[in-house]
Design goal:
Blueprint lengths: L8 H11 L4 E6 L7 E7 L2 E7 L9 H13 L17 E3 L2 E7 L11 H18 L12 H11 L2 H5 L3 H15 L6 E4 L8 E4 L2 E5 L6 E4 H12 L10 H14 L4 H28 L12 H17 L2
Antiparallel strand pairs: 1-2, 2-3, 3-5, 4-5, 6-9, 7-8
Helix pairs in contact: 3-7, 3-8, 4-6, 4-9, 6-9, 7-8, 7-9, 9-10
The structure holds adenosine-5'-triphosphate and L-homoserine.
Length: 318
C-alpha cells in the first residue's frame, strides 16, 4: 500500500478549509501505486485525491507537471488538474512533503484489457500527444537512455542478488541499445509511464489519464513503446497478447499518426522501455524502506519482456 506519510484528520480538514471545499467526511489511503502517498478524500464539496510527493518526484519539477495537467485539461482531455487554494496556490506543504489536492476522475484501471479497450488507450495516448504538440516547456528524462547505465551501476551487485546473471544481461543490453538507439525521431513531451494502472476506463471509454510524474521530453514514439510493453503482456511478463499490442498501435496511429521510421524503431524502443522498468523496479526492490506498506513490483516481469522483445521484436510489432 502506498501511504508513506500519514496525514491526520485535523491536517486534512485544515487543508480543505484552505481550498474552500467545506468539511472533511472521510479520508482513505489508496492501496495502488508505489511512488507517492495518495488519499481519497471525501469532503462536503465533493471527492478529491490528495497526493503527497515522495522520493522520486522533485518539488522543483512540480510546476512543469502541474502546467502540463492544466494544458491537457484545457484541451478537453480527461486529465486531472491540481486545484488552487483560496490564495491561488496549487502546491502545499503537508507533513514536510509537497502536496496537491487533485480532481477526482471516475473509472477503473484494468488488469486484463480487451482489444477494444487497448485501442481506446492507444487513441488516448495519441490524443495526449496531439494536445502536447504545442506544450512549450521541457523536462529532461532522468530515467531515459542517458541515465540507465548509472542506475544499473547504483544497483550494483544487487542485480545478481535479484537474479543470477542479471548484471551481465543488463550490461549487454546497455551496449546493444547504445549502438542501436534511434537518433533522428521526433521528440516531444510524453507521459512516459502510461501503464494500465494509469488509465481509468468505463467500459471501452477512457475517463482518465493520471500519474504524469515521469512526463519528460523524449522520443515521442518511446511513449508508445512504453505503453506496448506495459499493456500487451501478462503482469508477470510471460505471455504476450498480439491482439492487444496491435490494437494499441492501431489506435495510436489512427488518432495521432505514426511514421514509417517511428514504426520501424518500435522494437528497439520497446527494448529500452523494458530495460527502464527492469532497472527502476530492481532499484526499488533493493531500496524499499522496511516500514513502507508498499507492494514491491517484480523487476523480472520486465526482464521477461526484454528477453521477448530481444528475441522476437519485429514479430511482436508485425
Ligand atoms: N485523479 C484521480 N482520480 C481518481 N483516482 C485517482 C486519481 N489519481 C490517482 N487515483 C487513484 O490512486 C491510485 C494511485 O495513483 P498513482 O498511480 O498516481 O500513484 P503512484 O504512487 O504515483 O503510482 P505509480 O506506481 O503508478 O507510479 C490510482 O491507481 C487510482 O486508483
Ligand atoms: N509503472 C511503473 C512504476 C512507476 O515507474 C512500474 O510498473 O514499474
Amino acid at each position: 500500500m502506498a501511504v508513506y506519510t500519514q496525514v491526520s484528520a485535523e491536517a486534512m480538514a485544515a487543508l480543505l478549509h484552505a481550498y474552500g471545499l467545506g468539511t472533511l467526511i472521510s479520508a482513505k489511503g489508496i492501496a495502488e501505486g508505489v511512488e507517492n502517498s495518495n488519499y481519497l478524500v471525501e469532503a462536503s464539496a465533493g471527492r478529491f485525491i490528495l497526493t503527497l510527493y515522495e522520493k522520486r518526484v522533485d518539488a522543483g519539477d512540480l510546476p512543469f507537471f502541474l502546467a502540463l495537467l492544466d494544458h491537457c485539461a484545457d484541451r478537453g482531455l480527461p486529465v486531472p488538474r491540481a486545484l488552487r487554494d483560496r490564495d491561488g496556490r496549487q502546491v502545499q506543504s503537508l507533513c514536510g512533503r509537497p502536496a496537491c489536492l487533485i480532481e477526482f476522475l471516475p473509472g477503473v484501471s484494468l488488469t486484463t484489457p480487451s482489444a477494444g479497450q487497448a485501442r481506446a488507450a492507444g487513441e488516448a495516448l495519441g490524443a495526449l500527444h496531439a494536445a502536447l504538440a504545442d506544450f512549450a516547456r521541457e523536462r529532461p528524462n532522468t530515467l531515459g537512455p542517458d541515465g540507465w547505465r548509472a542506475l544499473a551501476a547504483r544497483c550494483g551487485a544487487g542485480l545478481d542478488a535479484i537474479a543470477p546473471g542479471l548484471a551481465a544481461r543488463v550490461a549487454r543490453e546497455l551496449d546493444f541499445l547504445a549502438a542501436h538507439w534511434p537518433a533522428d525521431l521526433p521528440r516531444a513531451v510524453i507521459h512516459a509511464d502510461l501503464f494500465p494502472d494509469n488509465v481509468l476506463m468505463l467500459g471501452d471509454r477512457v475517463t482518465g489519464m493520471i500519474d504524469f510524474y515521469f512526463a519528460c521530453s523524449e522520443i515521442r514514439a518511446w511513449d508508445l513503446a512504453v505503453t506496448h510493453s506495459a499493456w500487451s503482456f501478462s503482469g508477470d511478463g510471460t505471455d504476450f497478447d498480439p491482439a492487444i499490442g496491435a490494437a494499441l498501435v492501431a489506435g495510436y496511429a489512427a488518432r495521432f499518426g505514426l511514421s514509417a521510421a517511428e514504426r520501424a524503431a518500435l522494437p528497439v524502443l520497446a527494448r529500452g522501455a523494458a530495460l527502464r522498468f527492469t532497472l527502476t523496479r530492481a532499484w526499488d526492490w533493493l531500496n524499499t524502506p522496511a516500514d513502507a506498506l508498499v507492494t514491491r513490483k517484480d523487476p523480472l516481469a520486465f526482464l521477461r519482456r526484454l528477453d521477448r522483445y530481444a528475441a522476437q521484436g519485429e514479430t511482436l510489432f508485425a
